[in-house]
Amino acid sequence: METVNAVGRRKAAIARVIVTEGNGDITINHRSLDKYFPSSILQYIVKQPLKTLAAEEKYTIRVNLDGGGYKGQAEALRLAIARALVKINPDDKKALRAEGFMTRDPRVVERKKPGRPKARKRFQFSKR
Question: What is the pTM of this model?
Answer without folding.
Answer: 0.90
